[in-house]
Amino acid sequence: MQNQSEGAILVTGGAGYIGSHVVKLLGERGEKVIVLDDLSTGNREAVLYGELVEGNTGDQTLVSNVLKRYGIKTVMHFAAHTIVPESVEKPLKYYGNNTACTRSLLECCEEAGVENFIFSSTAATYGIPEDASKPCVETLPTAPINPYGMSKLMSETMLKDLDAASSMNHVILRYFNVAGSDPDGRIGQSTKNATLLIKVAAEVALGKRDQLYVYGTDYPTADGTGIRDYIHVTDLASAHLAALDYLNNGGESTLVNCGYGNGYSVREVIDAVNRVHGSPINVVEEPRRAGDPPALIAGVDKIHQSFDWTPKHNDIDVIVKTSLDWERHLLAGGKPGVPV
Predict the structure, then answer these.
(1) Is pLDDT larger for residue 4 or for residue 340?
(2) Residue-by-residue DSSP string for 174-210
(3) What is the strand order of the sheet 295-296 is part of?
(4) From the DSSP assignment, how many helices (H) and strands (E) are in the chain?
(5) Other CB atoms closer than 10 Å to residue 94's CB: what's the count?
(6) Which among 138, 177, 190, 335 would be 20 to 30 A from 45, CA to CA?
(7) Residue 338: pLDDT above 80?
(8) Per-domain residue ranges for the chain?
(9) What is the CA radius of gyration of the chain?
(10) Given pLDDT bands bounded at 50, 70 and 90, which one contains residue 337?
(11) What's the rounded Cα separation, in Å, for the pair 297 and 302?
(12) Rounded to whole angstroms, how far apart are CA atoms 189 and 38?
């Protein structure tokens, strides 16, 4: 059996899309979990294990009390705003929540003697890679093109600086395109007005939206649409447990990409939705959006060299099927954690 962490694990944002999937895996493994979430976008019912504390990571009094009360030795930090267009319209909202609240959380962690910190970051820190035909590796220069990416990069920088000044170790996980839902059907992507391609395509397939907009069909790719590295949320969640084990076994602070190392174009994703759903969805083609690179694929050598992590859902049809299954669950009146 893998080593379990000392004390409880604090999962901030654990009622949200990715955080709730991590909480599920931690709970199934027998870890003691405390979730801190203000429920601004998360769902109380999505917390399948552990104890939920309602509150914000910027509330230092609350955070300090939670860290002390539960003897927290590891923090997994997911709480963040994540909508790129909104970050452009409301940059201070993103710097306030994603950066300033993370700074407050880190101060509390340092004072409480937290040993391990696992941070949810993003490929948006890379910006537009100079050579989109090659996978993004962790040594590439960072050049975010929106406040969301910059807010995460600023948090990464704080973590690295704190690493040099304290005994707390960390793992930074840069996500690529997260998709899919829990194969058991208990939780999934429940965010209202979601912008993730596969989530939106599944909603179109089931009649929740009228059409799917495709932004850009003239990219220098095989079919003219953008290519992305889509990782199933359960595989991403398992990468966090692998990061936890890495730190518990004495691993030094590190940063790794989370993806599969292969990509699918927008048209290929639509084809998969049509195939799995059994009928074509309505697609509207629009001009390119500013700042969208032709391709964004994860370089994954480092995560496989560093962690004991083997993805189990690297199949676009599997990703799409779990998304469609979850949308059917919601359509039938189901909620996270609650069968219809």
Answers:
(1) 340
(2) EE-EEE---TTSS-----TT---HHHHHHHHHTTSSS
(3) 264-265, 227-228, 295-296
(4) 11, 14
(5) 26
(6) 177
(7) no
(8) 9-180+230-259
(9) 19
(10) confident
(11) 14
(12) 17
Amino acid at 47: V
Question: Could you please report the per-residue DSSP string of 64-116?
Answer: HHHHHHTT--EEEE------HHHHHH-HHHHIIIIIIHHHHHHHHHHHHT--E
Task: Read off the pLDDT of residues 181-213 as tens digits, 9 standing for 90 and up.
Answer: 999 999 999 888 888 999 999 999 999 999 999
Task: For the chain, give the percent of residues with pLDDT over 90.
Answer: 89
Residues classed as catalytic: 148
| Residues constituting the chain | 340
Nearest to 181 by CA among 26, 79, 328: 328
Lowest mean pLDDT among 27-36, 165-174, 193-202, 320-329: 193-202
Q: Give the CATH H-level superfamily of domain 9-180+230-259.
A: NAD(P)-binding Rossmann-like Domain (3.40.50.720)
Strand 177-179 with 264-265, pairing: unpaired
| Residue 101, pLDDT above cutoff 70 | yes
Scan for tokens 């990703």, then name that residue.
Answer: 319
